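Bumping my old thread because nobody answered last time. Still need a sequence for this structure:
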């Protein structure tokens, strides 16, 4: 029976709240997933793109979906706490990764002291098993969200059919239930065995109530990474897919989310 390890990780552009980079390649290597969904990938206007670097270093096929412009601002060294993920929210200013239109630096901080670079913020799905087909699902742009969201679906070429879909939904307050309704409709057009992975920006019970017939295979708090209070990152299955072993939240430092990971098996096709 084929088994596939699927993981989802919001990498926050590969930086912490101060804009300091962490080793995303090493983190993804530790996840050791056959299909890896990365949210908040970062492609700077100058320098190396994050998702292609991971794919090249670890031997993945890559499909990436750009979702909005963003800016990465590094905090002045004097304001950086060596032990903190980032500054307090009320003091944060433009530091770190800022999605959409960049905010102006605080008046007390000269603009020239804030090294920054513009780029593209997006979603990526990386795969190291054979793939039959790749499809992109447009989830549209909600009025209060700077990003046009989407999902990437990989139909894997295994002994048994399996589709893995990666996404990153808007916040619930933005109206992400509309995006979830689109996903439910598109993924429910057939009864293919499917895994849905991503940062859903909502809690598990609400998520499964909006996706009847789907079940969660990882349960555990994922956000914020330094003191998790809620599970926003999920792996869900439908169509007979089952966990081979208990899914897990993986302790990895660097991002503001913790990744989720599970070993899964699709149902074998009927023979007769």
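Sorry it took so long. Here it is:
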């Amino acid at each position: 029976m084929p088994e596939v390890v699927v993981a989802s990780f919001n990498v926050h552009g590969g930086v912490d709240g101060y804009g300091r980079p962490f080793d995303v390649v090493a983190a993804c290597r530790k996840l050791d997933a056959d299909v890896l969904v990365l949210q908040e990938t970062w492609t700077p206007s100058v320098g190396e793109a994050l998702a292609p670097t991971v794919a090249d270093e670890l031997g993945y096929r890559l499909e990436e979906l750009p979702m909005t412009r963003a800016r990465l601002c590094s905090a002045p060294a004097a304001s950086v706490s060596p032990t903190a993920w980032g500054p307090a929210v009320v003091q944060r200013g433009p530091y770190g990764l800022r999605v959409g239109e960049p905010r102006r630096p605080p008046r007390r901080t000269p603009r020239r002291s804030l090294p920054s670079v513009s780029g593209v913020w997006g979603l990526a799905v990386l795969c190291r098993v054979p793939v039959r087909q790749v499809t992109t699902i447009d989830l549209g742009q909600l009025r209060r969200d700077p990003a046009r969201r989407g999902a990437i679906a990989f139909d894997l070429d295994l002994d048994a059919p399996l589709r893995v879909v990666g996404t990153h939904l808007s916040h619930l307050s933005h109206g992400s239930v509309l995006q979830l309704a689109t996903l439910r409709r598109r993924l429910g057009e057939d009864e293919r065995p499917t895994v849905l992975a991503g940062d859903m920006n909502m809690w598990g019970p609400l998520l499964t109530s909006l996706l009847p017939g789907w079940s969660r295979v990882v349960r555990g708090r994922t956000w914020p990474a330094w003191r998790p209070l809620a599970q926003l990152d999920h792996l869900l299955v439908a169509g007979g897919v089952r966990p081979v072993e208990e899914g897990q939240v993986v302790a990895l430092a660097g991002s503001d989310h913790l990744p989720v990971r599970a070993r899964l098996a699709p149902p074998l096709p009927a023979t007769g």
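Residues 58 and 92 are 34 Å apart (CA to CA). Let me know if any region looks off to you.
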